[in-house]
Write a structure and sequence with these properties.
This protein is an alpha/beta fold and about 160 residues long. The protein has helices spanning about 10-25, 40-55, 70-75, 90-95, 115-125, 130-150; strands at about 1-5, 30, 60-65, 85, 105. The protein has 6 helices and 5 strands; from the N terminus they run βαβαβαβαβαα. The protein binds D-ribose.
Length: about 160
């Protein structure tokens, strides 16, 4: 599996620790910045990772900012991206199993360093559960398509 990773200044230290962890665990990684603590704008870094994932040019991505909120907002604008802001290992597990999250988003200011690495570990190893969750992902695709076409989705129910 190949991972692209980026952060803003608030996520830079956390990104460095994650990069070291991924390297120690032989996970192939592309670091798309930022390269230091100088203040930068999170959308500039979110688009780099989200674009690669959206285009199918890389398997998965990791984005880190102060809260994780800005990175999530940007990444989820890209077709095919399912970015999950995870605060603990449980949300990372369910984000993979239920949502097939292809981008992990972390809020560095609210995470202890060891917890950030545990979240990454769980997110990397957890497979998508499929089944009823695939039906829901199909609906996400339908929504994307209808937004692209400018058509309005009729309300649907499985009941
Ligand atoms: C930067 O101060 C901060 O706004 C940013 O890292 C992020 O939390 C935005 O959502």
């Amino acid at each position: 599996m190949k991972i692209s990773i980026a952060s803003d200044h608030a996520g830079f230290e956390c990104k460095s620790r994650i990069l070291q962890y991924l390297s120690e665990n032989q996970v192939e990684t592309i670091d798309l910045g930022t390269d230091g603590a100088l203040s930068v704008d999170y959308p500039d870094y979110a688009v780099k990772v989200a674009n690669l994932v959206s285009e199918g040019l890389i398997d998965r991505g990791i984005l880190i900012c102060g809260t994780g909120i800005g990175m999530s907002i940007v990444a989820n604008k890209f077709p095919g991206v399912r970015a999950a802001l995870c605060h603990n290992t449980e949300t990372a597990k369910v984000g993979r199993g239920h949502n097939d999250a292809n981008i992990l988003v972390l809020g560095a200011r609210g995470l202890a360093p060891d917890l950030a690495l545990s979240i990454v570990a769980v997110w990397l190893k957890t497979p998508f559960d499929g089944g009823r969750h695939q039906r829901r992902l199909d609906k996400l695709q339908e929504i994307e398509q209808s937004l692209k076409n400018g058509t309005i989705l009729a309300a649907k129910s499985n009941e």
